Amino acid sequence: MSLLEGSVGVGDMVLLEPLNEESLLKNLHKRFQHKEIYTYIGNVVISVNPYQQLPIFGPEFIDKYKEYNFYELKPHIYALANEAYQSLRDLDRDQCIIISGESGSGKTEASKLVMSYVAAVCEKGEEVNSVKEQLLQSNPVLEAFGNAKTTRNNNSSRFGKYMDIEFDFKGSPLGGVITNYLLEKSRVVKHIKGERNFHIFYQLLAGADAQLLRALRLERDGSCYFYLNHEASRVDGMDDAANFRVVKDAMNIIGFSTEEIQQILEVTAMVLKLGNVELGDEFQANGVAGSSICDEKVVKEISDLMRLQPEVLERALCSRTMETKKEKVVTTLNKIQACYARDALAKNIYSRLFSWIVNRINENIKVSDSAKKKVMGVLDIYGFEILEDNSFEQFVINYCNEKLQQVFIELTLREEQEEYMKEGIPWDKIEYFDNSIICNLIEHNQQGILAMLDEECLRPGMVSDSTFLAKLNQMFSKHNYYESRVTQNAQHQHDPSLGLSCFRIQHYAGKVTYNVNGFLDKNNDLLFRDLSQALWSSKHPLLQTLFPEGDPKQVSLKRPPTAGTQFKNSIATLMKNLYAKNPNYIRCIKPNEHQRQGLFSSELVGTQVRYLGLLENIRVRRAGYAYRQVYSAFLDRYRMLSQSTWPHWHGQARDGVEKLLEELNLGPEEVAFGRTKIFIRSPKTLFYLEDKRRLRIHQLVTLVQKMYRGWRCRTNYQLMRKSQILISAWFRGNAQKKRYGKIKASTLLIQSFVRGWKIRKEYRKYFRSGAALLLSNFIYRRMVQKFLLGLRTNLPSKITDHSWPPPPYKVFTRANLELKKIFHHCRCKKFWDQLSPQKKEVLKEKLCASELFKDKKDSYPQSVPVPFRGDYVMFREKPKLQKLQRDANEPVLMADTVNKVNRANGKMAPRILLLTKSHVILADAQGSKVKTVIGLENVAKVSVSSRQNGLFGLHLTEISSVGSRGDFLLVSEHVIELLTKLYQATLDKMKRQLPITVTEEFTVKFKEDDVTVKVIQSQKEDVTNKVTCKKKGHNHLEVSSQ
């Protein structure tokens, strides 16, 4: 199915009419309601997170999309991945896939789908499969250490990731390189209510065995650790223990050694336990405020993990050494400074561990040889963020998105221009917003915000976030895209939403207000040298590797680069990498804030549409020609609109397209003819062609239907005529044959009677009158005598022996059967008169059971030789059960242990069932408490399973108090006896027969709902006939048994 056929809404929004934000949102909403989550803007894929599993992924769809071009099927992420892979493999063009969107929009899932598609379509082989497996297994490791639950997303990536996948000339993966950007390490020590720390901490506590936890000095209870949010320790649908096993298996597949995995977990445990280091106030002898460790046991456990002396760690946490070229000065830290040092240490250890894991993965997946390789990059980066309180992290994230928007506009225009030049189409300059002025505002080397932030961090004297904001106000007082309270006052403006400690930037996606509090500290990102040197001196191999600057031989007084500078440099490298590749874009959109399927918030989606610049993207795409297609495909689709091209065109495809459009009177201002493609400027023109095509197809279908119906009627008439002639011939021949047969038979009969009459007349004079009758009577009596005497000597001796001698002559067959019945009834009467009243009652019950269940229920044959006991719970030996009988004031007909099926979840609970002459009593398993008393008059009918199990349902009348709560679904090992006694008790009590239905599927009523119970054959060999119930949806219960 092509993009234009059977599409819900508009599949490619370049063709959207009218083009505005309202129509764009309406189109996305309409497609989302029909579970069409992918939409195109040219070659850009818009993905709306459905928050559910849809049946549009997997090997079947991968095979489908790899056989078609980009626009030949419905919009899908596989189509974009296939286009990128084919361009890389066949055209030798390096590709990059840029995935953007805010947290919870499905970026991580989109990157997994791209990688799984590429892994599925490339060549197979042992070495290739190993490389693919390593690339795919890097995802769970990075998710464990870099993802966390936020208020917007249960599996939010808290870092940016760019992966270069390298291929050989055949398109087979050789390896890759992963680059990470700006891990949100502040989450290690602090996160808001309702969010979690990084997944690995919870996975470690939930999935590690007791021996590993002891080795890491950890407790399984997450509430013991200050750095973990106790209110959100569990996430619905996420099994931390299982995920921990997945992460360890993935590390093994990637190539981590057992020792390295153990060291990684030890470092993770160190970070977790650092939050439990409690610091208190302590005053020095000179009165200066200091700090001390409150619980030295925690420090001792951390030091053991670090393989470091506790005194060294304690000294590094509570003091600081200031070193100049001439002297060293040791100062004590007060409680606030020591807490800052502790948290800074935890953040740095975790951040460096994450970077080390990324580098270690790169070592295993990198390509060793230096041969020329093809590269496909996948960028999973944070989306534009506007929060209630935007700080340094949001500032650099939005700066990154400004750079990506700049790349997007430039590469989109460049690609558009290259296509027009290649096709020989005149190029008109496209007017668009150039956000380079905003990028320069942030990244300029001397007068940019980041440069001024670094300058303020390095400036001696009293510096603070306020002095930094004052410098910005002075530098950018007249900048069109910068404003603050000071610049507004200078222009006699007043905006109460802009705080005194805030400044605002007009980004391409809208205005964002940033709070400068914390900018300097987060940009400095300082770790005291004492802590670096202490950790370097530890005997832990991995921990020592993470802090090379702690080596005394490499001590440098040079200040390390700030966080802003590092991020700016990494973004510059990323931009250079992206400019060198052919870009492919996936824009991810979150439909609602509650992660609910089927809910579409137009306000939220509209905000993201503006953030992502989708309208601007469409306008750029439509600034030239909205639609383009190769001549052959265009002619094949629209050739039926012209008599000259329908049904066949024997010339060049371009000539056919020109002839077609000429007959449709489309002017040159609407179409342009390239070297290989036809270009259509307005979407209205394309929709006009689609309407005419739809109408023409309707006409052609009507014509085809008319011709087919005429042919079918003619063919049917001819067949009917031939059949009628054949039937008539056969009928006439058969009638003559029957008539001849009757005449022949009548003739033979007459002949036989005449011959017989002649013979009898000839020989009658030789016989006495009546001799034949006398002889025949004598012979008959002798035959009867012989038959009866022989029968007397061969009668069966036992009542259970059903054998009977056959008659010697066929004439006695009916008499023999009647004698057999008389003899059997006589023996039964004699046997019955000899039985005691108790045995007679037992046989009556067995007879009743036979009438109810014989040839209906599979377990009936096994119950025939087993006598009915009535008491299966040792009723007379249990005083509690006898008390229940006394309360009922009736004799107990049967006592048995049954299992009651829970109405909500299908689980079973044991109950004791007592059947009296008037009631069915259900008590708890100990018999101490009556759960339910059901009068026999309230039992409407019984449904019982036809299989070996003992499942049956008691259907109660709705007018009863018990029936208002619903029917009962029970399981008994003696269901034949129980239902037989219940049937007889109802007959005795109510003078009516109790309807008992034996079936594999029946319906029970649970309160207001009707639930269908279906009994299926278990796949396992189960000699115990164990019954298991499983709820299937809201109104279905599936029972599995032998």
Automatic annotation (TrEMBL):
Residues 571-593 are annotated as: Actin-binding. GO terms for molecular function: actin filament binding; ATP binding; calmodulin binding; microfilament motor activity. GO terms for biological process: actin filament organization; actin filament-based movement; endocytosis; microvillus assembly; sensory perception of sound; vesicle localization. InterPro entries: IQ_motif_EF-hand-BS (IPR000048), Kinesin_motor_dom_sf (IPR036961), Myosin_head_motor_dom-like (IPR001609), Myosin_TH1 (IPR010926), MYSc_Myo1 (IPR036072), P-loop_NTPase (IPR027417). Residues 8-694 form the Myosin motor domain. Pfam families: IQ, Myosin_head, Myosin_TH1. Residues 857-1041 form the TH1 domain. Keywords: Actin-binding, ATP-binding, Calmodulin-binding, Motor protein, Myosin, Nucleotide-binding, Repeat. ATP binds at G101, E102, S103, G104, S105, G106, K107, T108. It comes from the Eukaryota. PROSITE patterns: IQ (PS50096), MYOSIN_MOTOR (PS51456), TH1 (PS51757). One of its GO terms (cellular component) is apical plasma membrane. Belongs to the TRAFAC class myosin-kinesin ATPase superfamily. Myosin family. This is Unconventional myosin-Ia.
